[in-house]
Automatic annotation (TrEMBL):
Protein name (database record): Glutathione S-transferase
Domain GST C-terminal as annotated: residue spans: 83-202
Cross-referenced InterPro entries: Glutathione-S-Trfase_C-like, Glutathione-S-Trfase_C_sf, Glutathione_S-Trfase, Glutathione_S-Trfase_N, Thioredoxin-like_sf
UniProt domain GST N-terminal: residue ranges: 1-78
PROSITE patterns: GST_CTER, GST_NTER
CDD domains cross-referenced by the UniProt entry: GST_C_6 (cd03205)
Naturally occurring in which organism (per UniProt): Candidatus Pantoea multigeneris
Record's signal peptide: none
């Protein structure tokens, strides 16, 4: 398999972690989607990462779709419950973590614009999305049914990559205040070899 993406993308990291946890051998192709000469559109017409080329040459894009594809290969461990409704609950939490990541990426991109061109309304709205999403994930992590339970799942991986991105880009640096369950989840995940091997370089 070939994974196309950037080392700093939390969505690419999510797929890298899944592949490493499953012991699937893959080639990583470092491609930034933001460069004019980027090769990413060859794999994804939307010009976004990650993209995955499977052993049959089929190209898959969007991290949620790639995650589904990997689960359909039935390579252990499974990161979604066998029961369809339970699997949907896990995927919804993973999607919530992805949505928080989307908001964080928007903040990063907006803050790269000249100060007088930045939209304060956009930044406030994105921070609101992040804080509300974190509050919900904190509740889920405290409950321990679908997040930070007995076995690692897709929601755990997506949440860990999201929290890692918040730390890496220093978005909402006080996210850990009054969210002890998420802090414990992050501590446990970041000790895993798959997360340690995919820490983005500063």
């Amino acid at each position: 398999m070939k994974l196309i993406g950037s080392y700093t993308s939390p969505f690419v990291r999510k797929i890298s972690v899944m592949l490493l946890e499953k012991g699937i051998i893959f080639e990583f192709v470092n491609e930034s989607p933001w460069l004019e000469e980027s090769e990413v559109p060859r794999y994804n017409p939307l010009g976004k990462v990650p993209a995955l080329v499977d052993d049959n040459g089929q190209c898959w894009f969007d991290s949620a779709i790639i995650a589904d594809y990997l689960e359909l290969q039935h390579t252990p461990p499974a990161f979604s419950p066998a029961d369809p409704l339970k699997a949907l609950q896990v995927r919804q939490l993973a999607k919530l973590a992805d949505g928080i990541t989307d908001a964080a990426v928007l903040i990063v991109r907006e803050q790269q614009r000249p100060g007088n061109q930045q939209s304060e309304a956009l930044l406030i709205r994105c921070r609101g999305h992040i804080l509300r999403g974190l509050d919900r994930l904190e509740q889920e992590a405290r409950d321990g049914q679908w997040l930070h339970g007995d076995t690692l799942n897709l929601a755990d991986i997506a949440t860990g990559c999201m929290l890692g991105y918040l730390n890496f880009r220093r978005i909402v640096p006080d996210w850990c205040v009054e969210r002890p369950a998420l802090v414990k989840l992050a501590e446990d995940l970041f000790q895993r070899a798959s997360f340690a091997r995919t820490v983005p370089a500063a």
